[in-house]
Amino acid sequence: MDFELTEEMKMLREMTYKFAVAEFTPVSHECDKEEKYTPEIRKKAAENGLVGAWVPEQYGGAGVGILGNAIVTEELSRVDMGIGLNIVAATFGLEAIYYFGTEEQKKTYITPVCRGEKVSAGAFTEPDAGTDVASYRTRAVKDGKDYVITGTKMFITNGTVCDFYVAQCITNPEAEKKHSRFSQIIIPADAKGITRNKIPGKMGVRSSDTADVSFEEVRVPQTNLVGKEGAGFHQLMHFFDVTRVMVAGQCVGISQGCLDKALQYVKERKAFGVPIGTYQLSMAKLTEMAIRIELLRNLVYKTAWLIDTGKPDYTLSAMIKYYGGQTAVYCANAALELHGGYGYIDEYPVQKFYRDAKVLEIYEGTKEAETLTIGRVLLSR
Ligand SMILES: Cc1cc2nc3c(=O)[nH]c(=O)nc-3n(C[C@H](O)[C@H](O)[C@H](O)COP(=O)(O)OP(=O)(O)OC[C@H]3O[C@@H](n4cnc5c(N)ncnc54)[C@H](O)[C@@H]3O)c2cc1C
User: Fold this and answer.
1) pLDDT tens digit string along 13-70?
2) Contacts of 66 (CB under 8 A, 6+ apart)
3) Which residues are annotated as catalytic?
């Protein structure tokens, strides 16, 4: 058993962290405050192979696999999770095309995103159904050679800045099994009948673009179907199995960022004549953070490595998402407490880490949803 990262992965980690510090730090506060999306940084990241790092080289990616992508995500999120999300989620939705799409779809949609020329979005959640993915209502009705799509999607990352959506739609409403009614369809963002509105006022990841998107009789060719008609539900489940590793990478990164900031602060700040880090109660917080981060990082790397080596264990994907969100929230809270009153004002980045971390328990499957996934597997054994 070899836990050592390869030289390539170590270099990737170092390069990504340096990139994030140089590019994110000067604009982090402003982008958070003013909810500014960061297209220029995304383009620069693409030049450095950080957009779609998981995508094989033949489709324009860096070809570093799911493990490399987890490391990239970790190092970006360690500095600013919102700006990092603009880079790692530029490919959100493409996973479905990569696993289930045609060769032509892969070249048309994946490659320009990796080059920084286009942005993708995964449009699944609806106003009345998030966790309950079998209750989505967006319909795609066949008409001649087209699908005509009507419905509304909610909380869509990159919703107003993307060039296309990979959307979950009902194509087979009569199918006996509810799960066999869905298909995934690519919808160009400039198609007639689309209205998209940015959702302002998010608590965290404020530089990420989040939107509601309405499709009103939007017409796309049937060749935009991704994978098989009626297989959309199962394709979506597989999609989450893989993308949860990316989210868990965010969890490791932001947790490490909190520990970095906390360590720096407790060495400088004095109370009763000595640095607060010398107090055992401070050490207990730092120690607990470090242990949780180490556990999470190891489990994330293992999960990613298993996928890359063709032996995926998707229960682990649910576990790292479950444990990761809670680790991030724990670390952000501990870092803020160690900063005392200064942690509560926006001059110090820990309050932003605290706000950013919470979404990790919500998107890509709430922690309750992950509990159900893991519990069902345990009971079926
Ligand atoms: C910043 C942000 C970005 C997002 N980006 C995207 C995106 O790009 N694409 C996309 O499609 N979606 C996106 N989402 C949506 C996100 O995935 C959903 O918000 C999430 O899945 C939860 O769905 P919901 O909000 O409808 O909550 P609900 O499903 O209504 O859940 C509300 C509460 O009920 C609990 N609950 C639900 N069912 C059960 C159950 N069976 N047992 C116990 N508890 C249960 C949930 O755990 C939760 O606590 C994003 C959300 C946010 C906040």
Assistant:
1) 999 999 999 999 999 999 999 999 999 999 999 999 999 999 999 999 999 999 999 9
2) 54, 242, 245, 304, 307, 308
3) 364
User: How many whole angstroms separate alpha carbon 22 and alpha carbon 259?
Assistant: 20
pTM over 0.85: yes
Give yes or no: residues 171 and 86 share one domain. Answer: no
Total Cβ atoms within 10 A of residue 118 = 19
Indicate if ligand 1 lies below 6 Å from the C-beta of 125. yes
Query: Each residue of 228-257: pLDDT tens digit?
Result: 999 999 999 999 999 999 999 999 999 999
User: Which CATH number fits the domain that encloses residue 288?
Assistant: 1.20.140.10
What local confidence, expressed as pLDDT, does residue 84 receive?
98
Q: Place 1 in a pLDDT band, splitting at 50, 70 and 90.
A: confident
124 lines ligand 1 (CB under 6 A): yes
User: How far apart are the CA of 362 and the centre of ligand 1, in A?
Assistant: 6
Are 80 and 139 part of one and the same domain?
no
Residue whose token pair is 């989040």: 210
Nearest residue by C-alpha to atom 30 in ligand 1: 130
Look at ligand 1, atom 43, and give the residue with the nearest C-alpha: 368
Does residue 96 sit within a domain? Answer: no
* Ligand 1 atom with the shortest distance to the CA of 208: 1
| Residues of the domain holding 270 | 234-380
